[in-house]
Design goal:
Blueprint: E1 10-15, H1 19-32, E2 36-41, H2 44-52, E3 65-68, H3 77-86, E4 95-99, H4 104-112, E5 117-120, H5 125-143, E6 156-161, H6 165-178, E7 182-187, H7 190-199, E8 204-207, E9 210-211, E10 214-215, H8 217-227, E11 232-236, H9 241-250, E12 254-257, H10 263-288, H11 298-314, E13 318-327, H12 329-336, H13 338-355, E14 361-364, E15 369-376, H14 379-395, E16 398-400, E17 403-405, E18 408-416, H15 423-439, E19 444-447, H16 450-471, E20 475-484, E21 489-500, E22 504-506, H17 512-516, H18 520-536, E23 548-552, H19 555-559, H20 563-574, E24 581-586, H21 587-590, H22 595-604, E25 608-614, H23 621-626, E26 631-634, H24 636-640, H25 646-661, E27 665-668, H26 674-682, E28 687-688, E29 697-698, H27 699-707
Parallel strand pairs: 1-2, 1-3, 3-4, 4-5, 6-7, 6-8, 8-11, 11-12, 18-19, 21-23, 23-24, 24-25, 25-26, 26-27, 27-28
Antiparallel strand pairs: 9-10, 13-15, 13-18, 14-15, 16-17, 20-21, 20-28, 20-29, 21-22
Length: 718
């Protein structure tokens, strides 16, 4: 499974009497890319003999993991699981039950017997890989203590590095008397210690710093480098606090002075050293790995890249980093819950791992974001092919329990040394490319480029400035009139403008798409709503029958779940009557079933609901009937050519006729000429909006329009 799994193979015991299921499990273990050594027991008695290491199985290593079928000849799998639970040594081994039984009694009995996981046959490959990934990354590397090969099943082998035979005999006698579980293997030099540590696993190391071939802390450094995660206790004849402190700082778990204390004291030092090391490894694991997937996190990924990149680049090699973001996870978490979402994440990781070439580094760098590093001489070609394969695999349907759903992916690629020659910079390049891929759709692949980075920096700067604009009073609303068939102003659309301190006056098309990609659109939408209503309430001073105000609502505002409450607060604070508020939404938002309840509730307040840009999406009579709609705004693309293109004129006439039958008002956008106005009125359109009717105006200009003796229009009032 990439760089994280190297070294000793995992000992796995499969207890299964069906040859076909044995072959299937062997194949799934290959797919999981776990370095393992598999032993198979075809019945419960054989499995128990292998676990207790009796007779022919005296030298059988204890497994790191047991895969157990419940329905076995002879000793039943349920009974075997309980025998394992009752054995203090065997109970520490994780057990995954693989069985056809879905009976509640079997499931309860299995978990009561401390089974780690229960999977029903036929086994889903994604689920199996997720389980193996969790066990491989956490349980086997952090929790399980090394198993001994001595006479006792619960024996804990300890390497004693001591060149004085008398001291070695004394330590052996003291430990045997205090706790016979500790079985000492004695060596007398650093070279022998390094040789043994390279060949065998030990529960702990007892180390004398004064050896024939090494002295002092240099001995400790050398042994720690070879011992890796094994806990180490320094045993010295020097009662030196400074030396003891430096030994602990270097990585020893304890410092014991020879001749001080008895066997209990020494046994306790070993026991505490082992437990401290386990706690330390657990904390290091939690700090460097993702809690859901068990994969290395962003920090660990960057540390690995820092070690791998320099020597590879010096040899003329390449490092390609892929950043993969899963799309659609928010909807899964929201509709099915985070438990299902977590299983979906693990399934996606399993799919990625199946495609990863040997030596690929995989990490989880965000909630739904992953990073892969391909380290080859032709890394970019390999990474490009891998990106296509990953995207195809991630798009396949997911099944978790009874739920089936689809996810997508965005992938960005960066290459060292072309794009960057440092790990953090290379990861940033890949992330930049991934963000750019997201601009083109819900799934896609993109490569990093300097132009891409420049554009991204400009966008980030604009977003930062836009956040400041909210508090620096740089935003302003303009109002574009909407008139009826007689030219009377019946409504006005509130349009946002940004008085940028350097770029001048910006229209919404220059900054709103950026805000839509972040939570910033919620703050802007709230500001527009409150400001528009506060201005509209003053129009009653200009005319006895004041016009309505139309406010655009984005999909993110609707998704946030508090639109109804926000509208209520804006109405209450402004004093505007609900009947004078029109909320404009696009067709794509209207088509979503979850929008119906909110829009119906808003309509019950007396608010008008309008579909903006009608005709540009997947227009459907069914949702016009199902959703609460009062107004349709025909998109300007149809209106522009309605005077010259008979097909556009027919489409506009059909929309108007359909809407009027349903009791829906129609607004034609893009009325730019007297000809447009004449034709649209003949077609039966009862509301018009466009530059010929009136350009967007400041609040003061619009109020002046309303105060004019003749507040009708037949031409451009700009």
């Amino acid at each position: 499974m990439g760089q994280e799994f190297t070294g000793r193979p995992l000992e796995i015991l499969l207890v299964e009497d069906n040859p076909g299921d044995v072959r299937l499990t062997v194949e799934m273990l290959k797919q999981a890319k776990l370095l393992n050594r598999l032993s198979v027991a075809t019945d419960g008695e054989q499995a128990l003999a292998m676990l207790q290491r009796t007779d022919a199985y005296a030298h059988q290593p204890l497994p790191d993991l047991i895969l157990l079928d419940l329905n076995l000849p002879g000793l039943d799998g349920r009974e075997l699981l309980e025998r394992i639970r009752d054995d203090s040594t065997l109970s520490r081994i994780p057990v995954v039950v693989l069985t056809q039984s879905g009976a509640d009694a079997d499931i309860r009995r299995a978990y009561d017997a401390y089974a780690s996981c229960y999977i029903r046959k036929p086994v889903d490959l994604d689920q199996f890989l997720g389980v193996m990934q969790s066990i491989g990354h956490f349980w086997l590397s952090v929790v399980t203590l090394p198993a001994g090969s001595g006479a006792r099943p619960d024996a804990m082998p300890v390497l004693l590095v001591e060149d004085e035979p008398g001291d070695a005999r004394l330590v052996q006698e003291l430990l045997h008397e205090a706790d016979p579980r500790y079985l000492l293997h004695v060596v007398g030099s650093l070279a022998e210690a390094q040789q043994q540590l390279g060949r065998h696993r030990y529960a702990a190391v007892l180390l004398d710093l004064g050896l024939p071939d090494s002295q002092g802390l240099q001995t400790l450094r050398a042994v720690l480098q070879t011992a890796g995660p094994m806990p180490l206790v320094v045993m010295s004849g020097r009662d030196d606090e400074n030396l003891a402190l430096r030994a602990i700082q270097l990585g020893a778990q304890d410092y014991v002075v020879k001749g001080r204390g008895d066997g209990e004291h020494l046994a306790r030092a070993l026991r505490y050293a082992i437990e401290r090391k386990l706690v330390q490894e657990h904390l290091e694991f939690v700090a460097s790995h993702d809690a859901v997937t068990g994969l290395p996190n962003r920090r660990r990924f960057l540390d690995t890249l820092r070690q791998l990149m320099p020597p590879l680049l010096r040899r003329g090699g390449e490092v390609a980093v892929l950043v993969v973001t899963l799309t659609g996870m928010g909807a899964v978490n929201q509709s099915l819950g985070h438990d299902v979402g977590d299983l979906a994440l693990k399934a996606a990781v399993g799919r990625m791992q199946r495609l990863m070439p040997e030596g690929t580094v995989l990490a989880c760098t965000g909630n739904t974001e992953f990073a892969l590093a391909c380290i080859e001489r032709d890394a970019m070609s390999q990474a490009s092919l891998l990106a296509e394969q990953l995207l195809d695999a991630l798009r396949q349907p997911y099944r978790v329990g009874e739920h089936e759903f689809y996810l997508g992916g965005l992938i960005g690629l960066g290459l060292a040394p072309v794009d960057a020659d440092e790990s953090a910079a290379l990861l940033k390049c890949a992330e930049t490319a991934m963000y750019q891929a997201g601009q083109r759709g819900i799934s896609g692949i993109d490569f990093y480029s300097t132009d891409l980075n420049r554009l991204l920096q400009e966008r980030l700067a604009l977003e930062r400035e836009l956040r400041h604009a909210l508090v620096r009073d740089e935003l302003e609303l303009e109002f574009q009139p909407i008139v009826d068939a007689q030219g009377q102003v019946v409504s006005a659309e509130a349009l946002l403008r940004w008085n940028h301190p350097r770029r001048g006056r910006l229209g919404p098309d220059q900054f709103l798409p950026l805000a839509e990609q972040s939570e910033l659109i919620l703050s802007l939408g709230q500001w527009v709503l409150h400001k528009a209503l506060a201005v509209a309430v003053t129009w009653a001073e200009c005319r006895p029958d004041p016009p309505s105000v139309a406010v655009n609502v984005s999909a993110r505002q609707l998704d946030a779940g508090n639109l109804y409450g926000e509208v209520q607060r804006a109405l209450q604070s402004s004093g505007l009557l609900p009947a004078r508020l029109e909320l404009e939404l696009t067709e794509s938002v209207m088509q979503r079933a979850e929008s119906r309840a909110t829009l119906s509730a808003l309509r019950e307040l007396g608010i008008c609901i309008a579909i903006d840009d009608f005709g540009t999406g997947f227009s459907s009579l069914s949702y016009l009937k199902a959703f609460p709609v009062d107004i349709i705004k025909i998109d300007r693309s149809f209106v522009t050519d309605a005077t010259t293109d008979s097909r556009d004129a027919v489409i506009v006439r059909a929309i108007i006729a359909m809407a009027h039958i349903l009791g829906i008002d129609v607004v034609a956008e893009g009325v730019e000429s007297p000809r447009h106005q004449t034709v649209l009125r003949k077609l039966g359109c009862n509301r018009l909006q466009g530059y010929h009717v009136g350009r967007p105006e400041t609040a003061e200009q619009f109020q002046a329009r309303l105060r004019a003796p003749d507040a009708t229009t037949g031409g451009d009032h700009a």
